[in-house]
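User: Here's a structure from my thesis project, written as structure tokens. My advisor, Dr. K., wants to see whether a designed sequence matches the one we expressed. Can you design one independently, without my sequence as a hint?
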């Protein structure tokens, strides 16, 4: 699992972007939170997704983008967990995880 969050920090916003030099206004996204959303949410040009009041558990956020061609690119994933309140002391610093997520190893 990537980021571990205490139970009271269960409101998350994911920011993402797709790059299209030829037609940036045509980039669209779809996303889902596995085991939370039943399917991919409808395609949108919005570059963030917010989830609130997630119960404790392990999650995988997935996002993909498409451009002018209409072909969907590869899925990007972010793994995290919301800890049960008994595990509040076993945390990874959000600042360290943010740095690792954007500048470290990607899957």
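Assistant: Designed independently from the structure alone:
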């Amino acid at each position: 699992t990537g980021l571990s969050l205490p139970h009271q920090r269960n409101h998350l916003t994911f920011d993402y972007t797709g790059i299209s030099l030829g037609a940036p206004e045509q980039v669209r996204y779809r996303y889902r939170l596995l085991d939370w959303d039943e399917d991919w949410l409808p395609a949108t040009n919005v570059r963030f997704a917010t989830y609130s009041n997630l119960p404790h558990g392990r999650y995988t956020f997935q996002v993909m983008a498409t451009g002018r061609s209409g072909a969907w690119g590869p899925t990007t994933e972010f793994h995290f967990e919301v800890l049960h309140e008994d595990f509040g002391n076993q945390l990874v610093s959000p600042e360290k995880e943010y740095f690792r997520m954007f500048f470290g190893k990607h899957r």
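When you compare it with your expressed construct, this may help: Helices lie at 94-103.
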